[in-house]
Design brief:
92 residues; mainly beta; Immunoglobulin-like; three-stranded antiparallel β-sheet; 6 strands; binds copper (II) ion
């Protein structure tokens, strides 16, 4: 339903979309459905978490907590690792 992290003022759940050939992002405000036994992948160019209002610079190799609030009210905290993404591949 929502995600928080102590390193950011806000964590939004986003979806990358193509509109008229232009890539943009939309916030998913209703949360993401995670079917039993299935996975949801957060990745560049797809669903992703947008960290806004960072309280310090992210450094490759550092880790930070992300707390996911589920529809049941349960909270799960995972550690995320900062990695430098390779530039996107140009498919033309
Ligand atoms: Cu985004």
């Amino acid at each position: 339903m929502s995600v928080t992290s102590p390193i950011a003022g806000r964590v939004d759940i986003h979806q990358t979309v193509m509109v008229d050939g232009i890539m943009s992002m939309q916030q998913i405000q209703t949360g993401i459905v995670l079917p039993p036994g299935k996975s949801v992948i957060f990745e560049p160019g797809g669903k992703h978490l947008m960290l806004l209002g960072l309280k310090s610079a992210l450094k490759s190799g550092n880790t930070f907590p992300l707390t996911f609030r589920l529809g049941s009210g349960k909270q799960i905290t995972l550690m995320a690792e900062v990695r430098v993404s390779p530039p996107p591949v140009d498919s033309k």
